[in-house]
Amino acid sequence: MNRRLRQGGFSLLEVLVAFAILSVSLGVLLQVFAGGLRNAGVSDDYTQAALYAESILAAIGREAPLSEGVHSGPIDDRFSWRSTVDAYTEGMPVSENMPVHGYRVRVEVFWRGLAQARSVQLETLRLELPDPSGQGRR
């Protein structure tokens, strides 16, 4: 009978050790999941900013004039943009028959992240032919 009483269940120390192991394991798992969710949010912000930057970059010279200078503005309550257009002459052909103007176009979309300001920057080169009517560039 004494033998059956000893094997009847877990001791208090065994139960406490099991709960301690379980709580540490759950704490680690929650940190892993929270980190994954945070990284997914940051990745979503970068993707959205890159799409905004691509859209603004595509509009410069087509929907908006291709003029040298810095332009900026808000996109929505979180994202803002800044574009810089500079003359580009490196490696450009010099010919009176084909006077091509080169421009370096930079677009930066920035936003405030969880801990710091973040940004995405895209850059391209654009060529522009002068307007044949002589009334400015096209």
How far is the first residue's CA from the last residue's CA?
102 Å
- Which residues form runs of ≥5 with pLDDT under 50? none
Q: Could you spell the SSE succession in H and E letters?
A: HHEEEE
Question: Structural class of the helix and strand makeup?
Answer: alpha+beta
Give the percentage of residues in beta strands: 25-35%
Average of per-residue pLDDT values: 84
- Helicity, as a percent range: 25-40%
Global shape = rod-shaped
Radius of gyration: 30 Å
Please, how many domains?
1
Quick one: biggest sheet? 4 strands, antiparallel
| Discrete helix count | 2
- How many runs of DSSP E, i.e. beta strands? 4
Strand order of the largest sheet: 1-2-3-4
What is the structure about, briefly put?
The protein contains two helices and four strands. It is α+β, with helices and mostly antiparallel strands.
Topology:
Elements: H1 2-6, H2 12-59, E1 69-74, E2 79-88, E3 101-112, E4 117-128
Antiparallel strand pairs: 1-2, 2-3, 3-4
Explained architecture:
It is a single chain. The protein is of the alpha+beta class and 138 residues long. The protein has one domain. Helices cover 38% and strands 29% of the residues. It has two helices and four strands, in the order ααββββ. It has a four-stranded antiparallel β-sheet with strand order 1-2-3-4. The chain is rod-shaped. The N and C termini lie far apart (102 Å).
